[in-house]
Amino acid sequence: MFDIGWQELLVIGVVALLVIGPKDMPAAIRAVSRWAAKARALAREFQQGIDEVVREADLQDVRKQIQSLESTDAKSEIAKVVDPTGELAKDLDLSGIEKSLDSSARALTHESSAGSTTPAASSSAAPAEPAPTPAAGESPRQNDSPAAKPTGTG
Predict the structure, then answer these.
(1) Is the whole-model pTM more than 0.70?
(2) Distance separating alpha carbons of residues 106 and 89, to the nearest angstrom
(3) How far apart are CA 43 and CA 36, in angstroms?
(4) How far from chain centre, in Å, is Cα 79?
(5) Alpha carbon distance 149, 99 (integer Å)
(6) Cα 17 to Cα 67: distance, rounded to the nearest angstrom
(7) For residues 82 and 88, is the Cβ–Cβ distance under 8 A?
(8) Contact status, residue 77 vs residue 69, Cβ threshold 8 Å
(9) How far apart are CA 146 and CA 66, in angstroms?
(10) pLDDT in tens, 32-77
(11) What is the C-alpha to C-alpha distance for residues 39 and 31, in angstroms, rounded to an integer?
């Protein structure tokens, strides 16, 4: 910090001992220690204030970038990058497909809101579940299926 070596400190100590005297030296050392602690605290507070200003400046830059991104139209930006001349869009001409997809989606939502049932729900016979196959080493259970139960003859 001040680049003071031990030799300079020794000279300062001897001069302070001669000027202040041995009787008042402990009080002088305490006062100097307090001043040094206050100076360190002020330096720390100043550094924290500078760091906070830097962080706020960085945050404001980020806020400006986000606001500029919010105002841009992503669809048109992507279209500019992918097809800058517009030839690809003319060649593909997907407008008819988009319209047919929209109309079929509207028809599906209209049918579902009208209460139409799906073919699986309207069929009266539900498909039978296949019987579970026994694992290796297990014997098949005969009491699991209703067809395997004995018919009351005894």
Answers:
(1) no
(2) 25
(3) 10
(4) 28
(5) 58
(6) 65
(7) yes
(8) no
(9) 67
(10) 999 999 999 999 999 999 888 888 888 888 888 888 877 777 777 7
(11) 12
